[in-house]
């Protein structure tokens, strides 16, 4: 099977699994809806960094991205689906590469739309105080938001292949994102800046503070995603279906 055909089959799998398709749509819908709801009811809040405040709802998008990556990869480990996939695509590297590329591509496209739409939707309620795409750092933040969401999906996908369980991965990553990252941040100080979610969020600041700049932080987040992807590649090549 050619790489293009393998990628097409992986896209069909995502479309056929409601959990994966629903979480992909949630990456787009949830942050935008939360942004509109909060701005429409409460208006803009005072913030030392208005640009970062414009993306406050992105944490919900990160959770959706984790769910998408985990469910898209975890579908292979239900009811012996991996054996069927390997029968169609015997080359494990090709199968894994196609799955990874489709997850990354779908999450990136959805994330980019989400980044721009969430920002523009929120600013529409702020009148003269609104930021525009031409303001310093805004365009970078919108693009970076989409990249970060895609990297979080890739992180979850790689760990799911390693652990063979979407439930186990989400049970680890979602509490980490919502709780542990903040606790570690309070205890470890600067070391917390190198955690995947904290590092990736640097690109959302107009003037990033700490040891990492905007693109450096995104590179650290990418390194975490790459490690998880390599771990998944090792697991799928070494373990029996």
Protein described:
By secondary structure, the protein is mostly helical. It is built from 10 helices and no strands. The chain has helices at 3-16, 18-42, 50-53, 58-74, 81-88, 92-123, 138-163, 166-188, 196-200, 214-238. Helix 2 runs antiparallel to helix 4 (58-74). The chain is globular, with a radius of gyration of 18 Å. 44% of the residues are buried.
Shape: globular
Radius of gyration of CA atoms, rounded to a whole number: 18 Å
Number of helices: 10
The helix content is: over 70%
Major sheet attributes: none
Give the arrangement of secondary structure elements.
Elements: H1 3-16, H2 18-42, H3 50-53, H4 58-74, H5 81-88, H6 92-123, H7 138-163, H8 166-188, H9 196-200, H10 214-238
Notable characteristics:
241 residues, 74% helix, mainly alpha, globular
Can you summarize this structure?
The chain is mostly helical and 241 residues long.
């Amino acid at each position: 099977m050619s790489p293009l055909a393998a990628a097409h089959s992986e896209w069909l799998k995502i479309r056929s699994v409601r959990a994966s398709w629903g979480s992909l749509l949630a990456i787009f819908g949830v942050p935008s809806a939360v942004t509109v709801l909060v701005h429409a009811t409460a208006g803009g809040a005072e913030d030392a960094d208005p640009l970062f405040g414009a993306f406050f709802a992105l944490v919900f998008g990160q959770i959706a991205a984790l769910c998408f990556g985990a469910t898209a990869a975890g579908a292979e480990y239900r009811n012996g689906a991996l054996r069927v996939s390997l029968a169609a695509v015997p080359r494990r590297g090709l199968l894994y590469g196609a799955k990874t590329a489709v997850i990354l591509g779908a999450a990136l496209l959805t994330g980019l739309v989400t980044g721009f739409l969430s920002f523009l939707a929120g600013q529409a309620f702020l009148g003269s105080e609104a930021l525009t795409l031409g303001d310093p750092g805004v365009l970078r933040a919108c693009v970076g938001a989409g990249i970060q969401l895609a990297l979080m999906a890739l992180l979850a996908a790689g760990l799911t292949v390693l652990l063979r369980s979407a439930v186990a991965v989400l049970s680890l990553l979602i509490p980490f994102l919502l709780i542990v990252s903040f606790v570690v941040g309070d205890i470890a100080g600067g070391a917390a800046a190198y955690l995947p979610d904290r590092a990736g969020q640097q690109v959302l600041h107009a003037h990033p503070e700490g040891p990492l700049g905007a693109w450096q932080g995104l590179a650290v987040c990418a390194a975490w995603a790459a490690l998880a992807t390599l771990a998944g590649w090792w697991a799928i090549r070494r373990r029996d279906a």
